[in-house]
Amino acid sequence: MEYKVEELSSVKRKVNVQVPVEEVNAAIAATVALYRKDADIKGFRKGKVPSSIIEGRFKKQIYNEATTDLINLHINEILSEMKLAPLSRIDVDAKELVKGQEFNYSFSFEVAPEFELPEYKGLEVEEEEVEVKKEEVEAVIERLRERLAEFIVIEEDRHPEAGDAVVIDFEAFKDGKPIEGVKAQNFQMTLGEGNALPEFEEIVMGLKPGQSGEGEVVLPEDFINKELAGQKVLMKVHLHTIKERKLPDIDDELAQKAGGYESIEKLREAIEKSYMATRKELTRSVAQKKLLDELKAKVDFELPESLVQSHVEQKIAELKGKLERQGKNFESLGKTLEELQEEFRPEAEEIVKSQIFLLAVAQKEGLTVQPQELDVELQKIAYTTGQDFAALKNFYEQNNLMIALKDKVLADKAMNLIYENARIKLVPPGSDDEREEEPSEESKSEE
Fold it and tell me: pTM for this one?
C-alpha cells in the first residue's frame, strides 16, 4: 500500500491510497476464510466448504466487509505514521474491491491548524471583588416565603382576585366541538402571575365558587398545536374554590422547611455563602474570558468548518428544545433555518477558536485527562439534565462523543492554568444591573 497526502488547506487533508493487486486478493481471501470457518452449508462439514462456494454464496457481504476492513486498517496505519489526530469525521471516497485489480481510494479529514502560541503566563487581568448585600439575602428569604406559602380555602362569597389560587374545570371548544388536549379537571392555578391568557383569567375572575361561565379566547400565535395557533375558541370554565395565600413567618420553622437549617440565622448564612460562591465563580469566569479574548486577538488561523458547523447545529438544537419546553413551535421565531445558522455562526466560530487555542496550550504543557475525570464530567451533565449516568455514558461512547468530552476537559484545564498563572487585580464590584442572573433561591437554601 502506498499513499500521498494533499494539503487542501491549512486544516484540511486528503489522502490518496493505492493498493496493489496482491493486497486486494489477500484481503478478499482473508474474509472468505473467516466465512468458511463458520459456514454451515448442506452437504459439507462445517469448516470444509470449498472457498469458491463460500465466495459465490456470500459474495456481496464478503466484498463489502473486505473493503471496509482494509480501508480501516489503512486509515489507522496512515494516521499513526502521520502522527495526526483528525478533528472531524473521516470521509471516505471508495468503491468496492475487485479481485485481480488494483484498488484506489481516498479519505479526507480536518486537523487543528498550526500557529505560534503567544506568551500566556503572567498576564494581568482585572477581577471584581465579591460582596453580598443584606437586602439581597432578605429578598431570597421573601422568595422562599412565597414558595413555602400555604393556600387556604376561603369561605367568603366573592370573586377571585390577582394573587388568589383557584381550583377549576375547563374545556375549549371550536365550532361547537371539544378540542382534544385543551381540557382539565380540578386544575389549580394562581391568578395574576402571567401563566394564563388574560382573557381566560377574566372568565375565571367573573365567577364565584360553584358557578360556571364561558367566553371567547384567542390562542397565541406560538401555540404548540399549529392548526389552532391564533384561532378564536370558546372556553367553558367551572370554579370550584378560591384559595388565599398565607405566607409563613420569618422564624426558625421557616429555616427548617427551607432546607433543614436549625435557625433563621443559619439559613441567612447559607444564602450569603451560596451568593459568595456563585459570584466568585462568575467573576472568575469573566476574568478568564478577558484573558482568553486577549490571547485570541494575538493569533490568527483558519477554523475547521466541520467543528464550526457542529457547534451551530448544537445551538439550534438547544434553541429548539427550549422552545418545545415552553410549548412553542420552532416556526414561531419567524426566522428560517438558514437565518438561524447565520445568526449562531459568529458565536460558534469564537467557541471553536477558543477550543483550538486552549488545546494547543494543553499540548504544550503536557496536560492529560484520566478516565475518572471524564466520569466526573459526565456525572455533572447527568445531574444537570436529570439523566441516568450509565445510560448517558453509554450514549457518549456509542456516538463517538468521548473525544469531544475529553477535549472540553483539556481546554478547561488549560484555561485554569492560564488563570492561575495570571496576575489578578481586584477591583470594586459593578452595579447589580451588570451582574448576570443569580442562582435560584432553592439552590441557595440547599447549599
Answer: 0.66
